[in-house]
Design goal:
- The protein has 311 residues and is an alpha/beta fold.
- The protein has two domains: 3-222, P-loop containing nucleotide triphosphate hydrolases (Rossmann fold, 3-Layer(aba) Sandwich); 227-294, Alpha-Beta Plaits (2-Layer Sandwich), CATH 3.30.70.
- It has helices at 41-48, 71-74, 92-102, 107-120, 136-148, 166-183, 194-200, 218-222, 240-247, 272-282, 297-305; strands at residues 3-12, 15-25, 30-34, 56-61, 64-65, 77-80, 154-158, 186-191, 203-208, 211-216, 228-235, 254-258, 261-267, 287-293.
- The strands form three sheets. Strands 6-7-8-3-9-10 form a six-stranded mixed beta sheet, sandwiched between helices. A four-stranded antiparallel beta sheet has the order 2-1-4-5, covered by helices on one side. A four-stranded antiparallel beta sheet has the order 12-13-11-14, sandwiched between helices.
- The protein is globular and about 75 Å long.
- The two termini are 34 Å apart.
Length: 311
């Protein structure tokens, strides 16, 4: 086991931000830490990366506690923070050289690593441009590049794609995947985007209100809903009377509405199709399609917490 958090807890005055979190990473894995804003993800990774001490609990790197001896982990750790940590009045290359020197790189070795990272993050052609003229996606890529200069064995990424365009997001996800496959880099990836975690991660921890509420492979987590249907209904027009009728049914466990698509969760033993069509007839609601969907991580999160991931 490469890294393990044991009963990790953090209090800020009267607030318990993280409550007895247990998780582990094996060498070469990409592990997702999934949860909404305020779930405690950033506080958890701040403790794991030795930035803040826990109130109680321990973090072990190769079975040795890092609470009192953080250097062993710090030397092989790369951090991609949620906030952009760059100097806007320096160029991309100047930023990388600065962070490289922090990692005690110099001379030909520093020049080589800066060139390698610029190529990896796709900014070779823009290396001499000031960061303040970069798009949000380019800044995010450079933010990642700064964490890779010393070839870390463990990379912690805290919501690295927040607020960027889909093209930049895809580039970052593909880069993370490539680093893992080609360099066997272990990655702890926090996000509140289900699709990112589904694409990247070998295993997933779902966190809410400071606690781990589910963990396992993607299939294991989806099997939490093995006893439930996810049914997607498309309607000509969403009516409040139909939604009210749905919400009044105890066998309907959750409802989400997006434009003219309504998604419901219900037990498999219930004939949910008959119920939906009965309610539609009573409320003069016209369906354009009704379909049973394969459970998604979003469905599991709704089931476990009663709210959507980005609520």
């Amino acid at each position: 086991m490469m890294l393990e958090a044991v009963e990790l807890t953090k209090h800020f005055k009267q607030t318990k931000a993280v409550d007895r979190v247990n998780l582990y990473l094996e060498q070469g894995e990409i592990v997702g830490l999934l949860g909404p804003n305020g779930a405690g993800k950033s506080t958890t990774i701040s403790m794991i990366s030795t930035l803040i001490p826990p109130t109680s609990g321990d973090v072990r790197f190769h079975n040795e506690s890092i609470i009192k001896e953080p250097a062993k982990l710090r030397n092989v750790l790369g951090i991609v923070p949620q906030e952009i940590a760059l100097y806007s009045d320096l160029s991309a290359k100047e930023n990388l050289r600065f962070f490289g020197r922090i990692h005690r790189l110099s001379g030909a070795e520093l020049n080589k690593k800066v060139d390698e990272v610029l190529a990896l993050i796709g900014l070779t052609d823009r290396q001499n441009d000031l960061v303040k003229h970069f798009s949000g996606g380019m800044k995010r890529r450079l933010n990642i590049g700064a964490a890779l200069l010393h070839e870390p064995k463990l990379l912690i990424m805290d919501e690295p794609t927040v607020g960027i365009d889909p093209q930049s997001r895809n580039y970052i996800l593909e880069t993370v995947k490539r680093l893992n496959q080609e360099k066997q880099m272990t990655v702890l990836y926090t996000s509140h985007y289900m699709e990112e975690v589904e694409f990247l991660c070998d295993r997933i921890y779902i966190m809410d209100k400071g606690c781990i509420i589910a963990s396992g492979t993607k299939d294991e987590i989806k099997n939490i809903l093995s006893s439930e249907h996810t049914v997607e209904v498309k309607v000509e027009k969403v009516s409040e009377s139909f939604l009210h009728a749905l919400r009044s049914q105890p066998v309907i466990h959750h409802i989400t509405v997006q434009e003219r698509t309504i998604t419901v969760l219900s037990p498999k033993e219930i004939n949910v199709f008959r119920l939906l069509f009965q309610l539609a007839e009573k409320t003069n609601t016209v369906f354009t399609s009704v379909e049973i969907k394969t459970p998604t991580l979003e469905d599991v999160f709704l089931h476990l917490t009663g709210r959507a991931l980005r609520d």
